[in-house]
User: What shape does this take?
Amino acid sequence: MEVIKSSTFDGIKIEPGLVIALGSFDGLHLGHQAVIKETIEKAGKMNLPSGVYTFAPHPLEVLKPALVPPSLISPRQKIEILTNLGIDYYFEQIFTREFSQLDYRTFVKDFLVDRLKIAHIVIGEDFRFGRRGKGDIHSLKKLGREFSFTVTGMETVKIGEQRVSSTTIREMIQRGEISSVPEFFGRYYRLDGKVVHGAGRGQALGIPTANLKLATDYALPPRGVYACYVYFQGKKYRGIANFGVKPTFAGKDYSIEVHILDFPNQDLYGENISIELVDFIREEMTFSSSEELVEQIKKDILYTDSLLCYN
Assistant: This one.
């Protein structure tokens, strides 16, 4: 996949005829994936390349920073997932206040028609664009007739009666409903980060942990212990992750600590790892002694070891 990031897309060298998915794709959940897959299928039928046109940073970060929702994927994850889905081009519009003032017609004509030479657009039926969100599926189809491109509108994906959306998934994560997330997300919820130095208590207790500094402002689950998969240098391990403040040690600073099962004794400081949250194990607890804490962690490890054998 060719990645192109720009605030204007001036001078882009591309052959006329491109099928693009237009949207924020801030979670790449099952609803977004349906739009992407339709784009790829349509491009194949039209014998044209496929692309995704999206925005960064999140428009609210520029227009209303106090209302920016926490992230569901990092920029690296977004590109990785789209590459694996089979998209040919990734167009990332650098979102500025100046860009936000463009009316939807100017955006479509100047950016999509004149510069990217699009032939077809796939869009979610509820996506809105342009100044004050006045552009929608109906106005896009009208512009298509004017500028000679066609449009496919995708219906909202539902699981039962519940709409699949980034907002729904964030709320599930923040309520701790981790095991239900894959049904809407299409995968486990993954957090990327770098291993940083902590207090070193895990090593002293005989249960070493990796302290994780997250790659982006992810939506976080409630404080507690979670079963997870850990990815390091292309290998997959089982693990337990603790989200919280370590109250047994009068902790005040929030941290994410990961104990990796069956992991070789290897220094991870400064390394990038990823964790996929599989299920909630227990709430954060205060123990009367280090020994009591260690006994509970051993129980958590046994439970996780059993749980992840079947996932």
Remarks:
- The two ends are 31 Å apart (CA to CA).
- The CA atoms of residues 230 and 275 lie 4 Å apart.
- Residues 188-310 form a domain with the Elongation Factor Tu (Ef-tu); domain 3 fold (CATH 2.40.30.30).
- The chain has a mean pLDDT of 90.
